[in-house]
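Weekly structure sync, notes
Attendees: PL, DS, HV (note-taker this week)

Item 1: T-lymphocyte activation antigen CD86-like
DS walked through the input record. Source organism listed as Dinoponera quadriceps. Sequence as pasted into the shared doc:
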Amino acid sequence: MKDHRGGWLRAVLPLITFLSHQTECAAKNGRSVVEHHPPSSYWEQGPFSQPYFDNTTKRETTTTVGQSAYLHCRVRNLGDRAVSWIRQRDLHILTVGILTYTNDQRFQSLHSDGSDEWTLKISSPQVRDSGIYECQVSTEPKISQAFNLSVVVSKAKINGNSELYIKSGSDINLTCVVLQTPEPPSFIYWYKGDNVINYSQRGGISVVTEKQTRTSRLLISKALPADSGNYTCAPSTAESASVLVHVLNGEHPAAMQHGNSSNSGAATRTLALLLLLLHAGSFAR
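Item 1 (cont.): predicted structure, written out as tokens:
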């Protein structure tokens, strides 16, 4: 009788080898999963985990009056809990989830589905809005993270006096500095009166603006009496500053200043004489 066992083994052996190989790969993969995802990570990512704050977010924010402020709160493992924004000075609830809970519609909660970030947006902030804001999570007990907002008044300043006297033929050289601004202005415009200074009106006008140093320089060479007027430096995110420029055709500016000094000195001498006469009169009595 013919033995069929040898043929059966030859047929089954490749299948046994294949299954053995698959088991070995699965075992290797199993070890790989254990190495990259330790048992503790299951509890961290699982349904029993607690929310926690991502401390890499910026906690100190400075903005200028009128420029929108954004406070970014990032919460991991939030689950079905709610995120609220609280103003610390009066414990006023500003937002819950994406809903605004205040009559002041300048406050708004921004959030994208699937994101861990809950952002409080404050439109047109004022100096009074400076202070501490808390990002609060409805755990038991509640957890919160504080954010400090500073709203400053950014102002432009033109170096020198508020009035400038220039002799005809000399240069008008004005330097504007933007103070107390957290970010460089996107632009700085120069005005003469109500009109932006137009370079095509005449030659010899140049403006050099350095955003990083927050400065702008206006140069008008060989000024004429027609160049007299009110010059204004207007940055994009700051209060403007002005200077009144007088271009004199005849009298030298120093003579005018000297004349003012002489008038002031004469007034001082007159006052001293009156005091002397009053003192003399009281002594005579």
